[in-house]
Amino acid sequence: ASGGKGASGVNAAGSIATTATRWDRNGDGALRVTLLGGFALLCGTRAPNPSLNSQRLIAYLALRDRPQSRSHVAGTLWPESTEDRSHASLRSALWRLNGTEPGLVRSIGGALVLNHSIEVDTSRMASTARMVMGGLLDARRLGEIKELFAHDLLPEWDDEWVMVDRERLRQLRLHALESLAEQCIGANRFG
Predict the structure, then answer these.
(1) Which of 36, 53, 111, 171 is the most exposed place for a label (fewest CB within 10 A)?
(2) Phi–psi pair at 120, nearest 5 degrees
């Protein structure tokens, strides 16, 4: 079964005993999910280390704008398993995640969604790309743009859903870079 080969070596070690709500309320630092270049879950300078299946769940939800039905999530993350087994794997991932990082994933009826207060680097990259293509972000912020566009989505993971999202983000990045190049040429900025 596909499961994100190599992903376990990407995380920084560490643990957190507080909830996502407490982090926000106490200002302990922004809660961030990094998917570009590899998986990382960060709270300020702390880096929790969820299980691989929990990482996959977090990553999948982080790449979705809307709540996802449990059945859809289970079928996508464990496509080679039976329906009962994929639902059991999802329950296990949620249970483990809630035990170590409560509040990260919310359940809304029969759907799952990542806590709205979590900053996701792929969302920032996509937003920046759209701003560049719309001419709202110019080459003066090239360093910031370069950093956001430097890495592929979860390069060590081989799940089908990751490959689809990786290609989608590559195409978005390519269009934004073409637009940025046109803006630089128009402004006679060649270096």
Answers:
(1) 171
(2) -120, 125
Q: How remote is the C-alpha of 121 from its chain's centroid? A: 6
* Section 170-185 average pLDDT: 91
* Adjacency order of strands within the sheet including 111-114: 68-69, 111-114, 105-108
Q: With contact defined as beta carbons under 8 Å apart, do 103 and 19 qualify?
A: yes
> Nearest CA to 101 among 141, 144, 147, 55?
55
Task: Tell how far CA 71 is from the center of its chain.
Answer: 20
Q: What is the C-alpha to C-alpha distance for residues 87 and 101, in angstroms, rounded to an integer?
A: 20
The 3-state secondary structure of 124-143, one letter per residue = HHHHHHHHHHCCCCCHHHHH
Torsion sign (Cα): 172, 77, 7, 100: positive
pTM of the model: 0.82
